[in-house]
Write the structure tokens for this entry.
Amino acid sequence: MSGILAVSGGNDALVGDAMPVHKQKVFAYITWGIKLLVFSQPTAPEAGIQVPAGTVEDGEGLDAAVMREAFEETGLHGLKLVRFLGQQVRGMRDVGKDEIHHRHFYHLRYAGDARLTWQHTEPDPDHGGAVEPFAFFWVRLPDEVPSLIADHGAMLPCLQRSLVIPSARIPGHSRVFRNDGEVQTATHPGRDRRFTLVRCVAIAACC
């Protein structure tokens, strides 16, 4: 596995009085045709629009982790792992967590008969609190993709190229462009002034 991007979240995301907790995370970009699966949390609208993701368990491989998380969060059977897309290291202080997430993004495909919308409750949520319903819906790539919270859309340029979808601006990013095999995205300026540099994996195949 190769392909890395740099740190996202601002300089203060990695430096502080206490040592932040490091966690391994997997993210699932699940497609159905050229539609992407996203969800909201009806009981916690402040959580924004997300893609299925979760924490890698001790001793668990990344491929197995993303398949497990995708099924647990969505309830979809028959998901197929297509490819690893890339990595991101992100500080999480902008969402109130003194953590650094090592994120691993994957493309999964669903080929079944999809409902347009549905709700599903994850049986064992990462945060360990009360279970909350997730409200899932499909959005067409790239134009219908809403702004995703906390850089959940960091690897969408790589996914878009792997699906041979015409280039378009990804919501929440001011530009997307190629530079010697890299896809670079700059988030809209804000108080944390984040900048993310993303490298696609298997660039010849997906970009």
Summary: Residues 10-15, 174-199, 202-207 have pLDDT under 50 and may be disordered. The chain has three helices and eleven strands. Helices lie at 62-74, 156-162, 203-206.
